[in-house]
From TrEMBL:
InterPro entries: DNA-bd_dom_put_sf (IPR009061), MerR-type_HTH_dom (IPR000551), MerR_fam (IPR047057). It comes from Nonomuraea roseola. Residues 79-106 form a coiled coil. Transmembrane segments: none annotated. The lineage of its organism: Bacteria, Bacillati, Actinomycetota, Actinomycetes, Streptosporangiales. It comes from the Bacteria. It holds the Pfam family MerR_1. Residues 6-73 form the HTH merR-type domain. This is MerR family transcriptional regulator. PROSITE patterns: HTH_MERR_2. Keywords: Coiled coil, DNA-binding.
Length: 257
């Protein structure tokens, strides 16, 4: 009776594919048995045991490049190597969990890119009557600020939180949003810029917004943040420039573009 089984039978017994067995052969993880008189390779019990061991370690997350050394190690080294594989797998699992959580946050919109405190500000702006488009623009500015000034982002939220307590300022900001549809040379822009600048000067707490932003960044990043989106809204660009000019004239340190 012929000793051993064919590669197809070995694959079935070890719950792998023939292609996998040949791959193990190429990597040197399983020795190729000799051919019998008919030219077929015959796999004995020791070969099947090796196949099962390699398959089990591979399914457990051990890289194929490490399995050979692992199977040749003494019990103490084997246990230590498995512990290291477990540590790496744990890190990978934590990374995958974090990615899954990020997908959940993406499904919830703002919370994927912004902390809860910033999201609370967006919710508050919506409650105060800002339109969805205005809240979306506010969100974009926050995401940009967090990317450009990551270390100071959380602290920078204090000033806008206080600003939303100023009902007159909130009303002016709503007027500013309405102004984006005006022509750049509309005389109302000058009047609105004066009103906004005067409100900043009348409420020193509001000045913490431009002052705090400037303190946390440089002139280039300040410009990117404070003038975000103005290339598509000329009226808003002129309004912002006029407000900054008026504040500078009053002694407020505003970076030049």
């Amino acid at each position: 009776m012929t000793s051993g089984v064919t590669i197809a039978q070995a694959a079935a017994f070890a719950s792998v594919t023939i292609k996998t067995i040949r791959h193990y052969h190429r990597l040197g993880l399983v020795d190729e048995p000799r051919r019998d008189g008919s030219g077929y390779r015959r796999y004995g019990s020791s070969d099947l045991l090796r196949l099962v061991q390699v398959r089990t370690l591979a399914e457990s997350g051990v890289p194929l490049s490490e399995i050979g050394a692992l199977l040749g190690a003494d019990p103490q080294r084997f246990a230590a190597d498995l512990a290291e594989v477990k540590r790496r797998l744990t890190e990978r699992i934590e990374e995958l969990i974090a990615r899954r959580d990020l997908l959940d946050r993406l499904a919830n919109g703002d919370r994927a890119l912004l902390p809860d405190r910033a999201c609370a500000l967006l919710d508050r702006a919506a409650d105060l009557g800002f339109t969805p488009d205005e809240v979306a623009a506010y969100r974009e500015g926050m995401v940009l600020a967090r990317a450009l000034v990551p270390d100071g982002f959380d602290d920078s939220l204090t000033e806008p939180e206080h600003a939303l307590d100023d009902t007159r300022f909130v009303a002016l900001i709503k007027q500013c949003w309405a102004a984006k549809d005006w022509e750049p040379d509309d005389p109302r822009i000058e009047e609105l810029a004066t009103a906004v600048a005067d409100r900043f000067l009348a409420n020193p707490a509001l000045l913490a917004i431009p002052n705090g932003l400037q303190a946390r960044t440089d002139a280039t990043r300040y410009g990117l943040l404070n003038h975000h989106g103005e290339d598509q809204e000329p009226a808003m660009a002129r309004l912002t420039t006029l407000v900054e000019t008026k504040l500078r004239s009053a002694g407020v340190d505003i970076p030049h573009q």
